Amino acid sequence: MGDAPRPAPRTHVKKLGDSLLILALILAIWQGLYAYAGDVAISSPLNTFTFATGLLTHAPFWDHAAATLLAFAYALAISAAAGIALGLLLGLRRFAGDVAEPLLVSLYTIPKVTLYPVMLLVFGLGMSAKVAFGVIHGMIPVILFTLTAVKNIPPVLLRTARALQLRPLETATTVLAPAVMPEIITGLRVGFALTLLGVLIGEMFASQRGLGFLIINGINSHDVRMTTAVAVIVVVFAVFVNGAMLALDRRVHHARA
Amino acid sequence: MSTSARAPGISRGTLILWTRTAVVAGLVLLLELLCRTQVIKPLTMIPPSAMAQEMVRLIAAGEISDDIVQTVSEVGAAFAVSVLAGFALGALAQALPRVRRAIDPLLASWYAVPFFVFYPLLVALFGLNALPLIAIGVVFATPAMMLSTIAGLDRVPGVLRKVARVHRMSPLREVMLVTLPSAAPHLFTGLKLSFAYAFIGVIAGEFILSGGGLGYGIAYAYESFENRKMYALMLLVLLVAIGVNGALHVWETRLARRRART
After folding, report:
1. Per-residue pLDDT tens for A28-57?
2. Within-domain flag for B60
3. Residue B107 within any structural domain of the chain
4. Of A6-20, A113-127, A149-163, where does mean pLDDT reach its minimum?
5. pTM of the model
6. B181: domain CATH number?
7. How far is CA A9 from CA A14, A160, B61, in A?
8. Do B204 and A110 touch (CB under 8 A)?
9. Size of interface A-B (CB pairs under 8 A)
10. Is the Cβ–Cβ distance between A171 and A242 less than 8 Å?
11. Residue A106 near chain B (CB below 8 Å)
């Protein structure tokens, strides 16, 4: 970190105040929606929290959560490993990268939900379809961020490595990796969110287990409390992990500057 | 710039474009071949040529005109609302540092929230019509436009603002002649992202829970085992997304070139 200016304690307090204010605002909107639409559409914040705490101390819920987390862990591992590898390859091979980049960007913008039937037909019902769905959502941003990072490495760094006669492995670990790490972490953060989205959507359509299934099951059986509570738990988890990765993200970006 | 050998008279850009076309054509051909030789079973996937044929037939027969109209108007509405709202909110946040600091964590974690888990709630709130679909498109697309607007306005060089002041421009003239042109590249990125997100939001919403539109058509065809129709609709959605994206990309490069010239 070096001599990066430490935020004064007062800004911390201010930030906390801001976050609390936003949280209060969200809760107020939620309560307002509840007042407007009533029990058939959405359960009240208080009701949801008591139900969610009940759910969290309930063993079957954790079975579903474990199923989701397992699929998510597989999908994220594949997205990250394959995404970084492809990104590095396409970044180093300029020509291949220039050929592939617009294609990847268009793949990124298509609504991948519509590909769900193909995934089912290819992978069948169950775990592998969920994982595949997570991967097609999460891998492309990781590739794109890595590719851009490698492409934008200042040439002087690589020339220095050559002048110092570093071996390829040394170049990779001492020059390439530190240079692209911040962007890769950003890519992984985006990839994390999208992989989770993919796995959940996968579970909503074609699974008998997992949190996505709990949500869709709640809809089908008009269990509004269940749907709202699980949705909130998922969102809290996603926002929490995103916040942690964002903090890491900012730290590595600062460390380089 | 590159030292690689290259045929004389062909620029690198053209070469890349041709290679890209060849790669895509090759993949489509491979898929066609795999399907025709039954390596990929017809129950799993139909050949791309059959998809295209069926797509053309569906469009020509007017079978999916209603769905197309519905989806296009929903995406259009969501796109328009989110671009306008995103720009206004972004400009507002950029002008008020206090507000900006407060909403910063909200914007940063926005796309981590899997919004589709809320979609059923939106349907319960608004009813099963176009409104929840437009709403989810807007919810999805607005922050992208906001972030791009903030980024663009942040990067208007201070010297340009000073020039505007030296020329005693009215605020409106300053915005039209200095601020907007200077922020244009970022605003354009915002447009592109907003379109993509509005499109994804609406189609995915239709797919999950709706009574019409292209997304619904795909889900319905899937459930009733109409493979041909399903793949034809998928191809249509794919082509529309890539087409609009490509058009925006071409427009953007043209604008960038004009900027570079002046």
Report:
1. 988 888 888 777 777 888 888 888 888 888
2. no
3. yes
4. A6-20
5. 0.82
6. 1.10.3720.10
7. 9, 41, 68
8. no
9. 146
10. no
11. yes
**Closest residue by Cα to residue B112 from A144, A107, A124, A138:** A138
| Distance (Å) from the alpha carbon of B150 to chain A's nearest alpha carbon | 18
Task: Say whether B116 and A201 touch across the interface (CB within 8 A).
Answer: yes
User: Which residue in chain A is spatially nearest to B102 when comparing CA positions?
Assistant: A18
Domain range holding B74? 65-209
- Best B43, B117, B242 residue to mutate vs chain A (most A CBs within 10 Å): B117
A70 pLDDT band, cuts 50/70/90, is very high
The domain tally of chain B equals 1
CB of A231 closer than 8 Å to CB of A215: yes
A1 touches B at CB < 8 Å: no
User: Is B228 among the domain residues?
Assistant: no
Top residue of B1, B14, B121 to mutate, by most chain A CBs within 10 Å, is B121
Asked, for residue B194, whether it belongs to a domain, the answer is yes
B225: left (phi over 0), alpha (psi -120 to 50) or beta: left
